[in-house]
């Protein structure tokens, strides 16, 4: 669930307008701006094609699109934040290395999930074995002591990542509206949403419907119906 | 509400969110009770979408972690451009099983074998650790610059080869370390894709 910061695109906004930044930061920012203008959810095969053709922005889009999925899988497998940082980096490296040999690019999300999940289990198991042999308490109550995340959970995570990515392609007002209503632990009242967005509370319902229609259009263009 | 008139998208959302007045809610339910396939499908889609958003617990990585991943692309391109045609053979300069311990080399326990390879400006330190399970070994490696910073040796690809077959792959960490764990005893090759070229270590017998 999002924090109370209120804007799902907040992570990107902090980079908006920063000039003379290092290359990766500039790409990060530029990718986001272009994504918003076009309101298009780039297909993975198109992004991979761009990466292979030398377009660094294509790579930036891939990283941004799957950042939450990879990182969250690592955490769900029991990795610490520091381990999740390394796992994220390594999964990105593996992806970059294998870009030109990937088959079935339409299943990139699933491939990343599997890769991140395997890598995470290895890291977590290794740490736990060490802790165990050192006499530290072994948390048998932890649901992720061994094995893998259930298939259903993996599918859900991938869908949620796709929806979040699609939400980020929407105009700012819609992003905020959807975040206030559906991503906050305690959704805001129509009164408060109206105040924050500068619209009458009575317009919140119709605006919400239009935003969800737009979201459906973005998802639908990529076959998520 | 007539059976032939579909429920609007907005109204379906209100229905799911419990925002309709009692008469409006009943009207929507009466229409849905007719089995209208279009409204059923619409309602199911909105319900799934809202449920996915409301249960979303995805976490953003820290911004510096994302930036580092974005920067990998140019780093790798520079690297492959500079080193694409250079194949370097690493030479064994030290083996703890067959040499006297030179000054400066750390003393290892009896179950650890240390090998030191050199290729131009880098050393590759390999430590083979025997595991409790017979026939199984951990390979712990570190790429070390003979001079200068180790920065260029971070996050580089390392492959474990058995004959022509790749049996493992990993990356160096921030200080050039890498590991292949629980490897079966056999003869292997190790390939490192470094900025200076592809470094090959051949015939490492475990």
UniProtKB/TrEMBL annotation, chain A:
GO BP terms in the entry: DNA-templated transcription initiation
Tell me which InterPro entries the record gives: RNA_pol_sigma-70-like, RNA_pol_sigma-70_dom, RNA_pol_sigma70_r2, RNA_pol_sigma70_r4, RNA_pol_sigma_r2, RNA_pol_sigma_r3/r4-like, WH-like_DNA-bd_sf
Entry annotated with the keyword Transcription: yes
Instruction: Write out the GO MF terms.
Output: DNA binding; sigma factor activity
Keywords of the record, alphabetical order, are:
DNA-binding, Sigma factor, Transcription, Transcription regulation
Q: Which Pfam families match?
A: Sigma70_r2, Sigma70_r4
Q: Which Gene3D superfamilies match?
A: 1.10.1740.10, Winged helix-like DNA-binding domain superfamily/Winged helix DNA-binding domain
Q: Which residues form the RNA polymerase sigma-70 region domain?
A: 62-123, 167-217
**Which protein family is named in the record?**
Belongs to the sigma-70 factor family. ECF subfamily.
The name under which this protein is listed is: RNA polymerase sigma-70 region 2 domain-containing protein
To which species is this protein native? candidate division TA06 bacterium DG_24
TrEMBL record, chain B:
Pfam families annotated for this entry? Answer: zf-HC2
User: Can you give the residue ranges of the Putative zinc-finger domain?
Assistant: 10-39
What domain of life does the native source organism fall in?
Answer: Bacteria
- Gene3D superfamilies linked: Anti-sigma factor, zinc-finger domain (1.10.10.1320)
What is this protein's name?
A: Putative zinc-finger domain-containing protein
């Amino acid at each position: 669930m999002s924090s109370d910061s209120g804007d799902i695109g907040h992570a990107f906004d902090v980079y908006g307008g920063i000039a003379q930044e290092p290359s990766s930061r500039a790409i990060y920012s530029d990718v986001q701006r272009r994504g918003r203008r076009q309101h298009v959810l780039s297909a993975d095969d198109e992004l991979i094609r761009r990466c292979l053709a030398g377009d660094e922005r294509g790579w930036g889009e891939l990283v941004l699109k799957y950042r939450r999925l990879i990182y969250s899988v690592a955490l769900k497998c029991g990795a610490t934040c520091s381990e999740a940082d390394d796992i994220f980096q390594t999964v990105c490296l593996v992806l970059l290395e294998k870009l030109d040999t990937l088959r079935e690019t339409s299943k990139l999300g699933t491939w990343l999930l599997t890769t991140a999940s395997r890598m995470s289990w290895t890291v977590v198991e290794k740490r736990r074995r060490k802790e165990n042999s050192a006499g530290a308490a072994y948390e048998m109550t932890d649901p992720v002591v061994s094995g893998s995340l259930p298939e259903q959970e993996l599918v859900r995570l991938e869908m949620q990542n796709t929806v979040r990515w699609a939400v980020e392609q929407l105009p700012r007002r819609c992003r905020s509206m959807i975040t206030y209503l559906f991503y906050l632990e305690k959704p805001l009242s129509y009164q408060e949403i109206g105040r924050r967005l500068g619209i009458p509370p009575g317009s919140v319902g119709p605006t919400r419907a239009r935003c969800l229609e737009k979201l459906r259009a973005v998802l639908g263009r990529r076959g998520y119906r | 509400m007539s059976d032939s008139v579909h429920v609007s998208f907005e109204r379906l959302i209100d229905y799911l969110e419990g925002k309709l007045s009692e008469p409006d809610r009943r009207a929507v339910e009466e229409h849905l009770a007719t089995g209208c396939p279009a409204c059923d499908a619409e309602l199911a889609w909105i319900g799934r979408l809202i449920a996915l958003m409301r249960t979303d617990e995805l976490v953003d990585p820290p911004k510096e972690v994302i930036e580092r991943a974005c920067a990998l692309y140019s780093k790798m391109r520079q690297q492959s451009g500079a080193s694409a045609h250079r194949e370097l053979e690493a030479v064994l300069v030290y083996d703890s099983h067959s040499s006297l311990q030179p000054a400066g080399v750390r003393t290892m326990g009896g179950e650890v074998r240390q090998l030191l390879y050199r290729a131009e400006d880098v050393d590759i330190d390999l430590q083979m650790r025997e595991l409790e399970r017979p026939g199984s070994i951990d390979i712990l490696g570190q790429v070390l610059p003979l001079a200068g910073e180790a920065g260029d040796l971070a996050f580089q690809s390392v492959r474990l080869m058995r004959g022509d077959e790749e049996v493992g792959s990993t990356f160096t960490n921030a200080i050039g370390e890498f590991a292949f764990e629980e490897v079966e005893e056999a003869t292997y090759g190790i390939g490192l894709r470094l900025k200076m070229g592809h470094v090959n270590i051949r015939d490492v017998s475990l």
